[in-house]
Amino acid sequence: MVIGDIMADRYVCGSASRISPEAPVPVVAVKNETITLGGAANVAQNLFKLNAHVTICGVTGNDAMRPVILQQLKEEKIDATSVITDKSRPSTLKTRIMAGTHQLLRVDRETTTDVGEEIEQQLLKKITGKINRADIVMLSDYNKGLLTKSFTQQVIGLCNKAGKKVIVDPKGLHYEKYAGAWMIKPNKRELTEATNHEKIESEGELIKAAKKLITKTKSQYLVVTRSEEGISLISQKKQQHFSVKAKEVFDVTGAGDTVFASLGYFIALGVDLPTACELANYAAAIAVSKVGSVAVTIDEILSLIDTHEQ
Question: Tell me: the pLDDT tens digits for 18-29?
Answer without folding.
Answer: 999 999 999 999
